[in-house]
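Work Package 3 (structural annotation) set out to generate three-dimensional models for the target panel prioritized at the project kickoff. During this period the team completed the workflow that converts sequence records into discrete structure tokens, so that structures can be stored uniformly alongside our sequence database. As a representative example, we reproduce one entry of 357 residues exactly as it appears in the project archive.
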Amino acid sequence: MRALKILIVIAVALLISGLLLTRPGPVDAVGWTPPTPPEDTGILAENTDLRQATLLALGAVSGPEDIAIDTEGNLYSGTADGRIVRISPDARVETLTHTGGRPLGMDFDAGGRLVVADADLGLIRVDMGGEIEVLTSSVDGTPILFADDVAVAADGTIYFSDASTRFGLADYQLDLIEGRANGRLLAFDPDSGETRVLLDGLYFANGVTLSAEQDYLLVTETARYQITRYWLSGERAGQHDIFASNLPGFPDNISTRPDGSGYWVAIPSRRNPQLDSISHSPRLRNLTARLPSWMQPAPEHYGMVLLLDRDGEIRMAPRDPDGEMLYEITSATEHAGMLYLGSLGSDRIGQWAIPVD
């Protein structure tokens, strides 16, 4: 009887393996060899700094992915149920509007309206009465499948990312597993209504921010642990280079410090050793994509942000090991000495007092 049970287990395992190897997969992976992750020493030594944070809107929001702050200190964030919420300085939470999609990155324009990258709708604009206007949902005849983050320039131009031209938010893990350069950086002119592709061939284009002088943009490439710089003016206008590479985790949203001295980068998860170990093999990546979603690599329960200087060097890396207070951090926005931390997968916003040098 025991031998029969063993044979049945082996037969089932072979059947499952055969199905995984032969049925069509959702991705067409490419291989690459990731650099060896930086060691957790020095500035990157593990710490518990983020456990000193205050938690805002606890239990009143679900997946507050990005944070925008108005001149009166009100916080705005998009949630998993499609709402855009406003959180007052005295911690009151109210719904500004419901987009009917999934609002992600957001920024204010000169008129005090929220410009929002909605993963389902494209680029939208919301006034303080909650009225929604779709600005653009396509470029060059192709749909904007995964609008992710946005930065509004002083001249009104709206820069935003389209994380993937193949996969939407619900399947973002498949884009990371596939490893192809499906992302792009876009620009929208509100005067002409024109949407342009500034840069394509990005590996999961995610966070976007402007330098203090607005002479270049930074866009995070989540799938390659790096940040690309796109020059807007000067001799290098239209060119791009790598601003920071071999980061210790998957970079998400990025924001410029109010004094222009550097950039905050949200790290929703550290590097995944299992994913790194198969990154060289398209076959193993394709096989991983065929697994049930619960067996695929997923963000760890861990909190981390990075502070980069103007040269792309890491100057601070506050953490919350095991995510006791904050985890899956997807945005970090500085205001009045505080860092406000959003998350795609939690029910809170962190408020962390930035240490004074």
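The helical segments are 2-22, 172-178, 273-278, 282-290.
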